[in-house]
Amino acid sequence: MLDCSNIAQIHALMSKNTEGALVTLILNLQSKIQKRIGNELSIHGIGLSEYRVLSQLYVSTNKKLRRSDLAELVGLSPSGVTRLLNPMEKIGLIAKEENPRDARVSLVTLSKTGMQIFEEARISFENASETLFEPLSKKQLKEFSDLLNAC
């Protein structure tokens, strides 16, 4: 569940700098998400970053993406995504392949093992997400989603 105990402190900050206080709230929420979701995903042997990679590959055409596109989709630098993908390849979650049309472009493919792990982890992810936002009504969730999409 969301811990709203520091709301009064944030409101005090908001009177001085609304945007800065909102960023602080979002960062606090991000930290809670990473801890809660990360704990649930750890039973599948992956973390939140690996889950995001598997998720993007799962929904992509042919379950493959260019490494540069994948980096952008998950918010990592090209070198950051490479550091993340190397261990994922070693444990068989993904495979790297050369692009037959352009040797400078490498592709990342979701393996059968990666697909299975993702499908199992998705259930844990969804359950943890529901628990995290339990304090909010459906209307509040919709409004929150609309606000985040407006940014």
Folded structure, characterized:
The protein is mostly helical and 151 residues long. The protein has a single domain (7-150), classed as Winged helix-like DNA-binding domain superfamily/Winged helix DNA-binding domain (Arc Repressor Mutant, subunit A, Orthogonal Bundle), CATH 1.10.10.10. It is built from seven helices and three strands. The chain has helices at residues 7-14, 18-42, 48-59, 67-74, 78-90, 112-132, 138-150; strands at residues 64-66, 94-99, 102-110. It has a three-stranded antiparallel sheet. A hairpin with a 2-residue loop joins strand 2 and strand 3. Helix 4 crosses helix 5 (78-90). It is globular and about 55 Å long.
List keywords for this structure.
single chain; 151 residues; mainly alpha; 3-stranded antiparallel beta sheet; 7 helices
Q: Mean pLDDT across all residues, rounded? A: 89
CATH superfamily assignment?
A: Winged helix-like DNA-binding domain superfamily/Winged helix DNA-binding domain
What amount of the residues lies in strands? 5-15%
User: How many domains in all?
Assistant: 1
Proportion of helical residues: 55-70%
Task: Describe how the helices and strands are arranged.
Elements: H1 7-14, H2 18-42, H3 48-59, E1 64-66, H4 67-74, H5 78-90, E2 94-99, E3 102-110, H6 112-132, H7 138-150
Antiparallel strand pairs: 1-3, 2-3
Helix pairs in contact: 1-2, 2-6, 3-6, 4-5
